[in-house]
Amino acid sequence: MQKDYNTLENIIRLPHKYAAGPIFTRFYDGLRAGKILGSTCPNCKKVLVPARSFCPQCHANLDEFVEVAQEGEVVSWAYSDKEFFGSPGKPPFITALIRLDGTGCNFLHLLGGDGLNTLENVQAKVKKGTRVKVVWNEDKIGRMLDIKYFEPVS
Ligand SMILES: [Zn+2]
Questions:
Q1: Domain contains 87
Q2: Ion ligand 1 residue ranges (Cβ < 5 Å)
Q3: Range of 72's domain?
Q4: Considering the chain, what percentage of its residues have pLDDT values greater than 90?
């Protein structure tokens, strides 16, 4: 049967608000105050960051918040010179998994500073295990990007 219409692809931008829930509300409030909050699992004792409502390993309910270190080490990173819908900013940007000191999981955020503006510079300066520390945005509004990025510790 021959169709009498064409289908076209389109991207629809849909601004919306959502309830962050009590755990992420407290986590974001912590960011606004310049603190990174995690959750401590009462069973496996892991500190998970961002704070969350249950442990993904042992499924225990988590309701104990703890302020975590603002330094850690790079586990892996990816350099992007392309902007895409939902990208964290203008390219280039470097997303990274960071293991903050004393935590039991990786924290996904950005790397920046210290001349990290080309792939070659990032390759030269950032390795697995490179020590990094948080750099805060001057104006914090209670969002993940209150942390501007993590920069290598010199
Ligand atoms: Zn656990």
A1: yes
A2: 41, 43-44, 55, 57-58
A3: 21-152
A4: 83
What lies within 8 Å, CB to CB, of 95 at 6+ separation is 77, 78, 80, 88, 108, 109, 110, 111
Q: How far is the CA of 109 from the centre of ligand 1 (A)?
A: 23
Dihedral, 135, 50, 68, 132 alpha carbons, nearest 10: -40
Q: Is the pTM of this model over 0.90?
A: no
Domain count, the chain: 1
- The reply to whether 64 falls in a domain is yes
pLDDT tens by residue, 49-82: 999 999 999 999 998 999 999 999 999 999 999 9
pLDDT over 80 (residue 47): yes
105's tokens: 């999981």
Distance 72 CA to ligand 1 centre (A): 21
Flag whether 73 is in a domain.
yes
Question: What is the 97 CA–ligand 1 centroid distance (Å)?
Answer: 20
pLDDT over threshold 90, residue 33: yes
CA of 104 to the centre of ligand 1 (A): 10
